[in-house]
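User: Reviewer 2 asked us to show a designed sequence for the structure in our supplementary figure. I'm pasting the structure tokens here. Could you produce the per-position amino acids so we can include them in the response letter?
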């Protein structure tokens, strides 16, 4: 009886492993394969890019660029500046992380780079946007159709941030934060 149970366990394990080992050519394992003709693929890339532009184009120029992040940050700054004095004190700044998750990585003292005890618009705009930086694979401050498609694939695969990018992971317009939690350095 024990031998028979043992054989069933072994058989099940071998069967399960062989099913997992079969490659995409048999329709199992690995990511789904794109089986599109070139025209359909080009249309899918264009569709994804249009969605990215809709998401990121804050200045209305039809592109997703670092300039759009500056516009978005300026709007956020004006919204958070409750007393409209042109600067954010700690109590006003603490709401930024609820509006834009990038600010979860940048506390008030880290963003107040000039040490005035208040965050000014220029300091707010200099905080890198982690999602945009992750999507901008080549760091040129422009999300191309290819980069938009790569970001969609990455998110579908559940890869998250990927390659150590995001706050502290790479340079780009608007500044970067060096590894190790040092002060923020404005970019080029």
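Assistant: Here is a per-position design you can include in the supplement:
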């Amino acid at each position: 009886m024990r031998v028979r149970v043992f054989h069933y366990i072994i058989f099940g394990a071998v069967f399960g492993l062989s099913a997992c080992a079969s490659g995409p050519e048999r329709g199992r394992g690995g990511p789904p394969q794109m089986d599109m003709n070139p025209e359909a693929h080009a249309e899918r890339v264009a569709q994804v890019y249009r969605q990215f532009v809709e998401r990121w184009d804050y200045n209305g120029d039809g592109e997703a660029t670092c300039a759009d992040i500056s516009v978005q940050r300026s709007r956020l700054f004006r919204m958070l500046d409750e007393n409209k004095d042109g600067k954010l004190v700690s109590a006003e700044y603490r709401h930024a992380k609820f509006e834009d998750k990038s600010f979860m990585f940048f506390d008030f003292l880290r963003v107040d780079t000039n040490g005035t005890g208040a965050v000014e618009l220029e300091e707010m705009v200099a905080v890198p946007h982690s999602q945009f930086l992750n999507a901008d694979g080549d760091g040129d401050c422009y999300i191309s159709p290819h980069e938009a498609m790569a970001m969609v694939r990455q998110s579908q695969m559940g890869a998250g941030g990927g390659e150590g990018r995001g706050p502290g992971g790479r340079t780009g317009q608007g500044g970067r934060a060096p590894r190790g939690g040092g002060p923020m350095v404005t970019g080029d």
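For the response letter, you might also mention the following. The beta strands are 87-88, 119-120. The first strand starts at residue 87 and ends at 88.
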